[in-house]
Design goal:
By secondary structure, this protein is of the alpha+beta class. It has one domain (2-64, 74-262). Helix 2 packs across helix 3 (110-126) and helix 3 (110-126) packs across helix 4 (139-150). It is globular and about 60 Å long. It contains five helices and 13 strands. The chain binds zinc ion. Zinc ion binds at residues 4, 6-7, 9, 65-66, 68-69. Zinc ion is lined by residues 4, 6-7, 9, 65-66, 68-69.
């Protein structure tokens, strides 16, 4: 028997549950112009996780939740790509002095979007998959997220506050990276927060601690009082990620080459 990490019931078989909706990966694959047989590579800077492998589309975890609990996430998982991907032509561009600063969506379902974010956080925190190894939630945080989902109540603006950003360029929209704690600098200084690359160039910064975002960061927090604002991340090639990713990719290629050379068993 297996135990569902969400409802804690014992079941014969757990669902092959996804942690992130497949639609985001499919979007990134399209941007990366991948063929059906190519696999999405996960970019990670976790040194001991080489080789950077193929990651199954959607980041499935078959040791997480029962089928019934997987269904709890469905309304959020269906809603979020509909809002962020399918209707993206309706995202109003915010242009200041000729520069794209972000996008605005006038109408959105705050509760559904926020519960999507909380459910991704919970799934990544509860999952034992190595790609979520840097998401270390306390028992209190996991339980708070679980209760939010159970009660279909996102718990107010300061509970798991989040900010959304997006790379505007094709390269930024075509890669996947593992989520990690946010760097303790700038508007995240002193906050306990995580950065999730959810695919399609979207980055969600989720604050798990109770300390408030300082200004000006607070004004970017997604709120039900304002339209949804998505900040622009710099062009990927000019971003900090690009440098570390480039290095990681070089290391990964080297490691893969070494592994192929030694064992020859790892499928490329
Ligand atoms: Zn369950």
């Amino acid at each position: 028997m297996k135990t569902c990490k969400f409802c804690k019931e014992k079941v014969v078989k757990l669902a092959n549950a996804h942690v992130l909706p497949r639609a985001y990966f499919e979007y990134s694959r399209r941007k990366a112009k991948m063929t059906k047989t190519q696999s999405m590579k996960l970019i990670t800077n976790t040194k001991d996780q080489f080789p950077i492998g193929k990651v199954r589309i959607g980041w499935y975890d078959s040791d997480l939740v029962c089928a019934e609990c997987e269904n709890r996430f469905a309304p959020y998982d269906n809603y979020s790509p509909r809002l962020l991907l399918q209707n993206e032509d309706h995202h109003r561009q915010i242009i200041v002095n000729g520069d794209l600063k972000g996008w605005e969506i006038a109408q959105f379902d705050y509760e559904k979007l926020k519960l999507f974010v909380i459910s991704v956080l919970w799934r990544a925190g509860a999952s034992q998959l190595p790609q979520f190894g840097k998401i270390n939630l306390s028992q209190e945080e996991l339980e708070r997220a679980r209760q939010n989902i159970l009660n279909n109540d996102s718990g107010g603006d300061n509970n798991f506050s989040f900010i959304i950003a997006r790379f505007p360029d094709d390269i930024g929209q075509s890669f996947m990276a593992d989520p990690h704690p946010e760097y303790d600098t700038d508007m995240f200084a002193g906050l306990n927060a995580y950065r999730f690359y959810i695919g399609a160039g979207y980055i969600v910064y989720i604050k798990v601690g109770t300390k408030l975002f300082p200004e000006p960061g607070r004004s970017f927090v997604v709120s039900k009082e304002t339209p949804l604002r998505i900040l622009t991340r710099d062009n990927f090639l000019q971003s900090k990620e690009a440098d570390s990713m480039r290095k990681v990719m070089e290391d990964a290629d080297k490691t893969l080459t070494e592994i192929k050379g030694v064992g020859g068993k790892k499928k490329q």
